[in-house]
Design brief:
Layout (H helix, E strand, L loop, with lengths): L18 E4 L5 E11 L2 E8 L2 H18 L7 H6 L5 E3 L2 H16 L9 H6 L12 H7 L9 E3 L2 E3 L12 H15 L4 E6 L2 E6 L7 E6 L9 E7 L2 E7 L4 E4 L2 E4 L2 E2 L4 E2 L4 E8 L2 H14 L1 H11 L3 E6 L3 E5 L6 E3 L4 E5 L2
Parallel strand pairs: 18-20
Antiparallel strand pairs: 1-2, 2-3, 3-7, 4-6, 5-6, 7-8, 8-11, 9-10, 10-19, 11-16, 12-13, 14-15, 16-17, 17-18
Helix pairs in contact: 1-6, 3-7, 6-7, 7-8
The chain binds adenosine-5'-diphosphate and magnesium ion.
The site of adenosine-5'-diphosphate (ADP) has 21 residues, from helix 7.
Length: 342
Amino acid sequence: MKKNHMHRGIVLAGMISLFLFVSGCGFMQAYQEIQFFAMDTLMQVELSGKKSDIEQIRKIVEDLEDDVSVTDVQSELYQINHRTVSAIELSKPIARLLNEELAITETTNGALNPALYPISCAWGFTTDHKRVPSAEELAALLPKTDWRQIQLSNQNLTLPDGMELDFGATAKGFASDLCADYLREQGIKHALLNFGGNTYTIGTNKKGEYWKIGIRDPWDETAQGMIGVLESTNEAVITSGSYERYFEQDGVRYHHIMDGTTGLPARTGLVSVTIVCESGVKADGLSTALFVMGLDQASNYWRQYKGFEAIFVTEDGKQYYTEGLENRYHPTQGQKAEVIRL
Ligand code: ADP
Ligand code: MG
């Protein structure tokens, strides 16, 4: 279970009371907050708007969860993975999600791979029975994870026998994109979506300041500590970390972010990667992909593609952040931090 980030006055977690929000022109709108469980995590939303807006946010998230569940026999993803024919027509949102994810899969050369589901299953990350699969077992599964064989043309998906997808790496980011689309359509000027540490900011907070997003301290077991604070508006801020889901066997820790070339948890010297950009799918997908790539490859990727900013935390307790964040990312005092430049 993921915990929310809460710290001295930094608005990350929902507050319980409802109060009135007064905007500059004197127009009054209710300030709404909600917390609910979905997608295996605590979802927290605060916004200035109508009660129906916050209910709609919840519905968007729950509808997406119904579509991308790997275990619910009714879900669209279950239907994809249990298909009896190789060509399937996807719904519009799932086609959009897969299309956006595959764009990242290509540029990261498969570091983000939506076809790794058989590997995650072998490790038991999809169930409560976590285990270390044998080298033979992994070798037999790897050919079923060749993302180049996924063919998507508009809403038509063709997938060879034995291949299975999962959107674990991008679904929460995509949920925030769908919600942000809705909130913008409604003309909402102040909103914070926190989907289990995957955040999306719209406009400013109720005081008219940028939202302050705490970046989690990977070593703090209470999940409350921060290694820095980012000032944010109109963007996704999403972290992938090896501390999110893991188990230990014979003194070795195995986490849930997989390297598709080996079928093993990615070990690249990183403990967390935070991506900041306008698209939730891109931030979520790149946070996973750049974790798999490691600091050197990831910083080269940033130099080549740009269009996002990043904060990397390494196993030796250092942080590195891209120069676009220089004026708005504030590492906590005492943190060893270095700026990555072009
Ligand atoms: P979380 O949302 O749990 O913080 P991520 O966004 O990093 O984590 O996504 C991890 C999830 O994505 C895993 O639980 C698994 O379902 C899936 N996954 C693991 N490794 C990869 C990978 N290399 N590419 C795509 N999906 C992955
Ligand atoms: Mg991710």
